[in-house]
User: Fold these one by one.
Assistant:
Number 1:
Amino acid sequence: MIGDRVETDIAFGNRQGATTLLVFSGATSEKYLNTLKQQAEKHAIERDLLPNFCVK
């Protein structure tokens, strides 16, 4: 699943068992993704929001 929004595209792909690719050309910034990754390590946020791969 390829998408630019972690809350919709990436979450949907992960929940369906698909490999996910986040593109930074749209809604989600690299800074926001890094924030999510840090929160995932410290807190039990939904890991469904984290993509398998990213491209700029």
Note: The CA atoms of residues 11 and 48 lie 5 Å apart.
Number 2:
Amino acid sequence: MMDSSFLIGTAGHVDHGKTTLVQALTGINTDRLEEERRRGMSIELGFAEFRLPSGRSAGIVDVPGHERFLKNMLAGATGVDFALLVVAADEGVMPQTREHLAILQSLRIPAGVVAITKCDTVEPEWLTAVSAEVRQALAGTFLADAPLIETDAVSGRGLEELVRILDETSAQVPAPDLDRPAFLCIDRVFIRPGFGPVVTGSLRSGVLRVGDAVTVYPDELPARVRGLQTFGETESTACAGMRAAVNLSGVSVDELHRGQVLASTGSLQSTDRLNVFVELAEGDRPLKHRTRARLHIGTAEILVRILLWESAEVAPGGSAYAQLRLETPTASRRGDRFVLRWYSPQNLMGGGEVLEANPKPFRSRDAELAERLRALAGGTSGEVVLATLSAMGLGAHTPESVAERAGVDVADVVRELENSPSARKAGTGWVSAEALNRVGEVWTERLKAYHKSYPLRTGMPPDELRKRTSPVPDERAFEAIVSALEQDRILERIPGGIRLPGFEVRLRPEQEKAAREISSLYESAGWQPPFRKDVTRSVGPHRATAEVWEYLISSGELAVLEEGLCLHRTVVQHGLDTLRRLFDADGQVTVGSFRDATGSSRRTAVPFLEWCDSQRFTRRVEDARVPGSRLSRS
């Protein structure tokens, strides 16, 4: 069954029989390279399918054991669900045994078993001593209580028991996450003649289907799934927990390489920063602020700079919150595990977990951030949801987008958002109450300053307020935030502007009289409006001042079509009503049809329609107009 698949990763010292054991279990020699078979040593990752007695399907990722190929081992180990640690009876625990075990521990592999190989080559007393040594090496690790099986691939000794134990112990592996977007770390790229580029990898989450739109991150290359195979069998779908070979269209093989991520389009963001929780391995070397290191995440190896949040140094065996500044971008998600190696010599530094992908740049002594990272690292699912919403900042975030970043089920997100005072509804989305309060305070100060500078303007133009917000929200999010703050009586929306509640323009009597006179002139003129300079001359420059004109325009009494040319609000409304009628009849409007329907002239019809384009009441298509996004709700 597709939903019961999982991945087993081998681990252990070079020449301890990992590949031979895999072949004895599956009948597949995972050493596919000529050099590997000639030297009798794995260099690259190998893969085999394994059917367990229960019917559950497993993929085995066979990793190289030699220290020179450790980065290849890491590329395979970061995607597995279950560990098969191999120790040869004739040598016992060796350096790469310990290093591989430490790597598996850093990656938080949930379960595993230990196979002692080549047992028929040693005396029983020696085997007893090796078993005790192995058990001692496992103490304090996730394999401390793991089954330890004595095997020999040549005679078949212990293989049936190993298969049975693998089947039983695999129940500890969490069910694959099929609900999240597809996420596959690319570990191999090749071209199939007549079909095009193929990438292979372990599918960490979601489902891939033939025909799916996907993106290759961090390069953000759009592609489409042309074909799928799992262990040589052509399939229409591949699910989390499987090895998959994905034939892609829309992308060149020269653009693809190990270390990239193939994922559902729109589900990830490329980033050169990660906020993380780091756990150091035991040793004699402390981690210092701004240390350069090697990050192994997914199948990528990336040079990074480690910026510590709360201290200048972390002792061996300790832990810390940090920001990784990547020298080349990646694409990651909250909860992804990683391994760090020292830049030189390239020994294991430790491992950790991604808490925030694509965070804001590092800023020391940020107490608010430290609290959020602690919630993300060890909080309840509710605390994780709220911390994630806070990290997403100002916006109208959908439950789906919060769930994806938090790594939490959508249903849990909705329940938490609806019941927490720390989350606020914003349109059809959500925003943290903290972010909403903060922007409310900023906007209040902006509007106070605006009213002081322009006392005769009824309000600040919405787009001006939006563009003076950092970071600038998109229009949909801005409208949602304004609506939420309007409910809180923080601000007030008026035609063409936003103001503080209670703010009123107070004209002096002579200004009010001049404003009425100007408005009356434009209303009477209809579609044949006078030029502004002529109105100023008629009313008198000392009366038709710039402040009076500002008031008339900001209040919506007059609309400025172009410099010096205005229309009265009643004429504008007549024009919009006429547009609706013409659209209902013909679906589009030309300058001529609008001019004839309103009794106007080209002098006013052309600038009015251009003004409608700018306000999104209409949209120009060649020589005609079609309805814009605002016309129906105006």
Note: Residues 433-453 form the longest helix (21 residues).
Number 3:
Amino acid sequence: MHHSLRIAHISDLHFSKVSFSPLQFFSKRWVGNINLCFYRKAVYIPERLHNLVELFKSMGISIIIISGDLSTTTLDAELIEAKKFVDMFIKEGFQVFVIPGNHDQYTYSDFKQKKFYNYFPSYFSEKSPIETMFSLRDDGVTASRISDTWWIVGMDTTLATSLFSAAGYFSPKIEKNLDTLLKQIPSTDRVLLINHFPLFPNDKPRNTLERAHELQMLVQKYPNIIFYIHGHTHRSCVADLRLNGYPIILDSGSTSHQEIGSWNFLEINPHHGQVQIYQKDIVFSPSWKMIKEVSFKW
């Protein structure tokens, strides 16, 4: 029996279905469909991730974090497949925490209707006043206590964007709500903060988080945020920035990518922890190998 918290972090699964509806030409979905037909369909194959259930069970993992982009163009058919994938873990007893990415709010209509939340919960938990204080759908933040001293806080910073944009937005409303929520969590407890977008933008402005600087300043106010967990870049990363006043940064990469698919395994103990990065062992193979291990103290 494992007394530590054992967490799998996966992201950017990109379940996809090609749309033949002429209505796609009234939104940016036609751009996504062209990209899907000529590139994404062959590169991202989330259907091959079903073996993760048995692997995670064998590793004693009990919590799964999915940091966005479960779909490709937010089609209902894509979200249905993504939900089946998530439900597969839930039926096996895993706790699964899911936030949306930019591909999960792909068109203005999808964003306005908050379609993602027709398939995935807006609250991580509803066991306490802190956990029901805010919802992802309406407030952009939510939280769940996962042990006596650890919390998961999720964010929805997705945005209805223009034709070739993949940006997010840390709005003043979300900033206020996140600050209020973090104040309610005891300063002696520790936090894993999840957002789809990186804390430090290192891409073109049209692909990054607007008002990222404001999020950076807010995160610095709360040294009990130990991990900032994200996706979006499709590049695996572990970076301990605590000496600079920031959390440990974790990017799982795109787990469904057929050549460089990856995910993170977190083991958290009372005063220390470790992160292991797993990557595809062989291209187009369902097997995984550990390529890096990093240990931390707190």
Note: The chain has one domain: 5-297.
Number 4:
Amino acid sequence: MTEKYDVIIIGAGPGGYVSAIRAAQLGKTVAIIEKNNAGGTCLNVGCIPSKTLLEHGKKVHDIQSADEWGIHTSNLTIDAAQLTSRKVQVVQTLTSGVTHLLKKNKVSYYKGEAKINSDLTVTVNDETLSSQDVV
């Protein structure tokens, strides 16, 4: 059976999920398809994870230079596993926020790889979707 939507969006990065939410707010039935996690490269493996690790590095630097302020710290240790865990937690929190926004706006979310067929339907996870507009 083919699920029909007004709009199908492939990719749940910043352009995709914002477009999906806006289309839904305008009264369209919307499906979004993402092969990885919602939020795109920046949120999942780029900007956000790297900025989280950079912030950790800044904190270490501040602690190491605290002697200049009369704050004496010694035996500073860094738990790489805990830093990585924190980075993962930050990403998961933001990703779940994107997923929540999609759900709140009644956007149908499909996790899997999209394939556009010759009849202009879209297949994902053995399901077939159709729409006049595929973005």
Note: Strands lie at 2-4, 7-10, 30-34, 108-111, 115-116, 121-124, 127-130, 133-134.
